[in-house]
Amino acid sequence: MASYLNAMLQKSNSFLFLFLFLPFVLEAQVDLSPLWKERAYRSERISSYDQTGGNDDFIVIPKESNKTIAEISGPGIIKHIWITMNAKDPMIRRNAVIRMFWDGSQKPAVEVPIGDFFGQGWGEEYILNSALLVAAPKKGKSLNSYFSMPFAKGAKIEIVNESEADIQNFYFYIDYEKWPEPPPTKYRFFAYWNRKITKSALVSGKENEWALLGETEKAPLQITDQYIVLNAKGKGHFLGLNLYIEAPSPIWYGEGDDQIFIDGEAWPPRLHGTGTEDLFNTAWSPKEVFMHPYFGYPKVSEGTGWLGRTHLYRFWIESPITFEKSILFALEHGHANALALDMVSVAYWYQDPSDLNLPSLAKKDRRQNQPEINFRHIHKWRDAYRSEKGKDWGND
Questions:
Q1: Is residue 131 assigned to a domain?
Q2: pTM (2 decimals)?
Q3: Looking at residue 6, what is its pLDDT?
Q4: Is 338 helix (H, G, I), strand (E, B) or coil?
Q5: 313 part of a folded domain
Q6: What is the CATH number of the domain that holds 314?
């Protein structure tokens, strides 16, 4: 047997690894132990199927209108949401909003642009493959959520089309468990969208990173200068985030540290990080598409350096970040908040909703993309440099 394995190893290392060890890798990522257990719930579904018996298995959501796609009474847990849609508006994924309400609340627990919620930034379409969110083929047009969303008295999901164009085809499945009794938790699922177009907070006012414009400045923490992923009061646990960064400069955007303050603790918090790429479990200023069930980079900038758009995600599935009274999740935008960036995030967490008071979603005009910076602008910057320095190359 040993000689056979050695021969196989010499012949195909990759094949042998997959054959022998892939089952253990999958088992480590997906807990299969409870699959045999008896279930007390009833499986239910709400979908957009054509109730006339035809094949028009979609609904139309007119421009500038709301549409309730699910209204559930009694206790249960939403387990899976699938959506795909078609509209003439190229920004429909940012201009249409998904809202979720639990137990008769008039304030949404989720109020997030559809694309950003499902892991698609800037209104774009691309593949995402994570444990909780999947944007599947064709080209990321299929949007899937696997967050468990418990409720005791009822649930409502609505789509708000803030576009000036109809959503001509809106297809959906909402798969849920109907329980005989309320699930044994007071926690509810929440998601929060935020955006900030940052600017340098350095005393010099320069966007000085990597000491390219002089000695690197050291600056004390100023929460007002940070990018805020989440600032929430109550008891719960933080599960993860999507972070969408658009950089107007080719310099690395990720020197900023993460700082997570639990229950009002002073600086430095016990959850203090070392850099943006480190928070997302990568290293050394990555510029590669990489997707793990818990973290990844489904989209990386295609411009010079890190100029352009990058999407990062991380889920603390193995150990959510707990808080008893409050959580403040802050990110520096570059070291000491040195850089101008367009930062958008979606935070996902569970908590007792009784103490929660989050800001409303920003209006549509505050959610649009920044103007693109491309190779033409870089060439104009070079021409300005040549004119000022009288040099043809750069260092001559």
A1: yes
A2: 0.90
A3: 47
A4: coil
A5: yes
A6: 2.60.120.1390
